[in-house]
Amino acid sequence: MTIKPLIILPDPILRQVSKPVEQVDSEITRLADDMLETMYDAPGIGLAAIQIGVPRRLLVIDVSKEDEDKAPQLFINPQIVASSDERSVYEEGCLSIPDYYAEVERPAAVTVDYIDREGKQQTLQADGLLATCLQHEIDHLNGVLFIDHISRLKREMVIKKFTKAARARA
Q1: DSSP β-bridge partners for residue 19
Q2: Binding-site residues, please?
Q3: What does UniProt list as catalytic (predicted)?
Q4: Which residues carry out catalysis?
Q5: Contacts of 165 (CB under 8 A, 6+ apart)
Q6: CB-based burial of residue 61 (10 Å sphere; 0-12 exposed, 13-18 middle, 19+ buried)?
Q7: Measured in whole angstroms, how far is the alpha carbon of residue 77 from the centre of its chain?
Q8: Half-sphere exposure (CA, 13 Å, Cβ side) for 108?
Q9: d(CA 144, CA 13)
Q10: How far is Cα 161 from Cα 12, in angstroms, rounded to an integer?
Q11: Rounded to 5°, angle at Cα 26 from 23 and 27
Q12: Residue 170 confidence (pLDDT) above 90
């Protein structure tokens, strides 16, 4: 497994819509393993393939607590097919927007159809942190960032800060 470099805001690749995975093969499972390694190293609880520069509809999540065994999950071509009317607010962060956090309101529960590591169609009903994480990562696959869910003023300040930092690194 290989730790991959993370794509950081304002890189325009983060706004790309990812393409579906055609088939689950050794290349896809290797990519998923690299994504898990990268996510754990960061450390984070979710990572979409686009965040390492691969525009494919693939994401990994592990919402286990530090004192629990790791519980990695792989979602290929995930799609939210239902969401609750009830809302919840979580303070979200993103590996592609390091050290910035904001409260985001999303549906409290979602139903997600996806393909698993074995290439089988699955349906998952999620609530709590897992539901929020799934929505956050699926947003990435659609070129949407969590800062798109906050006020325009705050979003513009964040983008300006990261654009300035990127220029300083160049």
Answers
A1: 56
A2: 94, 136, 140
A3: 137
A4: 137
A5: none
A6: buried
A7: 13
A8: 5
A9: 11
A10: 15
A11: 80
A12: no
- Specify the CATH class of 12-169 in words: alpha beta
Q: Which of 92, 157, 84 is nearest to 127 (CA)?
A: 84
User: Could you tell me which residues are annotated as the binding site for Fe cation?
Assistant: 94, 136, 140
Does the pTM surpass 0.70? The reply is: yes
Residues 6+ apart with CB under 8 A from 1: 33, 34, 36, 37
What is the amino acid identity at position 147? I
Token pair of 49, please? 């393939």
Rg (CA), the chain: 16
Q: Which residues pair with 61 in a beta bridge?
A: 46, 73
- CB-based contact 7:96 (threshold 8 Å): yes
